[in-house]
């Protein structure tokens, strides 16, 4: 990509079985990798990507099969940047220039692009033209660009390959300015997952179903009830659930920003991070919660962090100081012992977390779906390269938690968490007062049958300093913690505790 472009790459692995997720996670590429727990289909995978994308940015979709070279991306972006189109589709079949007889370099591999696939594509293009008066030569192309705010307009009703045809027709019907441009692209070296007969038939049904205003839809739903009923039920259910969830989240936001009903306690342990600590505190104030407190516990810093605070910064702030460095866990515990919140939030002072994510972390507890919420960088957006040893260590702990305690928690070392006040008893009798504290709390919570969920958050690179986590001592403490809590877990599981 041209360095003039400011871009973020997100890869969504739709339940692959070839290790795609782990390969990308362990790579040094600066990309965001998200994994579906199972194969959900292209429609739902695209929807997830559209939901994660910034609505104020151009969104570009490209298949992962290598068919479309990234070098063609500027060609796709240009019409949008020049305000000539709102959706741009890269076509394999449009002529590259008026004087050329070639319609795209797919002809170099024409054995892969079979006669029947080409025939099916032409038939789909013909139907779209007949019914919608818009000729699209390559309605199944997975190489597309969307102007800011356009991608989020589309909510897929289908999960298979028919989603691309549905998307194309949707934008035509919505009056969105759609443009095809020729792409000098070849075909993938692997065999297509698309079934010519089955998927073409589904695409045909989708095209006809989208003619509801012309009276065809009712007939088709009667003729093929199973296909449409399943999609319709799923679509309606997900739509209603989405509306309900959004209303509940908005209601929670209103409660937290306009009433005294719930108090939020922020616990910020710090050690020689005065500049970033000030930034974190100011960001918390900027959320404009109505009833909150910020408890800062300085673990023996020598940079006097509070000296940088002004009068407004100290609003709702309680500051405590350790004479000597006692460790991360002990620092968090001291802060929690002094808090009075209904929701207790621990957040690091290094500035990597975005306090605006607090609403998403509180919501599962407010909605009675969790007792503890862990902010996960692996299911959200993170904007820095996680060190390899950190990833290996967290993966080891994740496997340990899953294999021995029955619950996998990917971001098990996360410092951004929210606890229901009823879990306050977890913090009594803690054995490890340094970084292993984060894992010990999870093990203790599982033993006591509290419900733990992970929620996506934003995570940013450190602007100052480096991580102080000592890998070997941490893993040794995690091992000791496992030895201590696993027998308790077994006793609880078999009703002996």
Question: Based on CA inertia axes, which overall geometry fits?
Answer: elongated
Task: Report the average pLDDT across residues.
Answer: 80
Spatial order of strands in the largest sheet: 9-8-7-10-12-11-13
Annotated CATH architecture of the largest domain: Alpha-Beta Complex
- By helix and strand content, what is the structural category? alpha/beta
* Residue fraction in strands: 5-15%
Overall structural domain count: 3
Largest sheet: 7 strands, mixed
Q: State the share of residues found in helices, binned by percent.
A: 25-40%
Radius of gyration: 27 Å
The level 1 CATH classification of the largest domain is Alpha Beta
- The CATH homologous superfamily of the largest domain is called Spore Coat Polysaccharide Biosynthesis Protein SpsA, Chain A
Annotated CATH topology of the largest domain: Spore Coat Polysaccharide Biosynthesis Protein SpsA, Chain A
Low-pLDDT segments: 98-112
C-alpha end-to-end distance:
59 Å
Task: Figure out the total of helices.
Answer: 14
Give the topology string: H per helix, E per strand: EHEHEHEHEHEHHHEHEEHEHEHEHEH
The total count of strands amounts to: 13
């Amino acid at each position: 990509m041209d360095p003039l472009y400011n871009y973020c790459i997100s890869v969504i692995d739709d339940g692959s079985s070839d290790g795609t997720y782990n390969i990308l996670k362990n790579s040094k590429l600066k990309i965001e990798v998200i994994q579906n727990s199972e194969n959900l289909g292209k429609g739902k995978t695209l929807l997830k990507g559209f939901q994660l994308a910034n609505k104020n940015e151009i969104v570009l979709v490209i298949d992962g099969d290598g068919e479309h070279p990234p070098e063609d991306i500027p060609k796709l972006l240009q019409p949008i940047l020049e305000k000539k189109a709102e959706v741009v589709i890269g076509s394999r079949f449009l002529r590259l220039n008026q004087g050329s007889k070639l319609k795209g370099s797919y002809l170099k591999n024409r054995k892969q692009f079979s006669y029947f696939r080409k025939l099916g594509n032409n038939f789909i293009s013909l139907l779209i033209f007949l019914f919608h008066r818009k000729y699209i030569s390559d309605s199944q192309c997975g190489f597309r660009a969307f102007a800011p705010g356009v991608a989020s307009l589309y909510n897929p009703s289908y999960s298979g390959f028919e989603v691309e045809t549905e998307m194309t027709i949707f934008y035509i019907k919505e009056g969105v300015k759609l443009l095809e441009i020729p792409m000098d692209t070849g075909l993938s070296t692997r065999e297509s997952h698309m079934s010519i007969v089955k998927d073409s038939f589904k695409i045909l049904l989708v095209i006809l179903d989208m003619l509801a205003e012309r009276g065809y839809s009712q007939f088709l739903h009667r003729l093929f009830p199973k296909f449409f009923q399943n999609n319709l039920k799923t679509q309606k259910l997900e739509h209603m659930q989405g509306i309900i969830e959004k209303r509940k989240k908005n209601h929670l936001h209103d409660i937290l920003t306009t009433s005294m009903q719930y108090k939020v306690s922020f616990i910020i342990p710090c050690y020689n991070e005065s500049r970033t600590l000030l930034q974190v505190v100011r960001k918390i104030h900027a959320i404009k919660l109505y009833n909150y407190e910020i408890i800062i516990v300085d673990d023996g810093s020598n940079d006097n962090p509070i000296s940088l605070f002004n009068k407004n910064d100290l609003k709702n702030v309680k500051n405590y100081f350790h004479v000597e460095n006692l460790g991360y866990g002990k620092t968090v515990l001291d802060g929690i012992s002094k808090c009075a919140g209904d929701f207790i939030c621990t957040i690091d002072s290094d500035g990597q977390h975005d306090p605006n994510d607090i609403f998403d972390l509180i919501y599962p507890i407010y909605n009675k779906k969790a007792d503890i919420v862990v902010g996960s960088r692996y299911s959200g957006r993170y904007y820095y390269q996680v060190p390899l040893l950190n990833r290996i260590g967290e993966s080891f702990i994740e496997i340990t938690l899953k294999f021995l305690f029955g619950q996998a928690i990917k971001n098990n070392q996360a410092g951004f968490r929210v606890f229901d006040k009823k879990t306050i008893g977890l913090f009594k009798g803690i054995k490890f007062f340094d970084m292993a504290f984060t894992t010990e709390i999870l093990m203790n919570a599982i033993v006591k049958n509290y419900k733990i969920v992970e929620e996506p958050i934003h995570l940013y690179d450190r602007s100052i300093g480096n991580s102080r986590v000592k890998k070997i001592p941490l893993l040794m403490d995690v091992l000791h913690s496992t030895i201590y809590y696993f027998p308790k877990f077994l006793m609880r599981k078999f009703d002996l505790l």
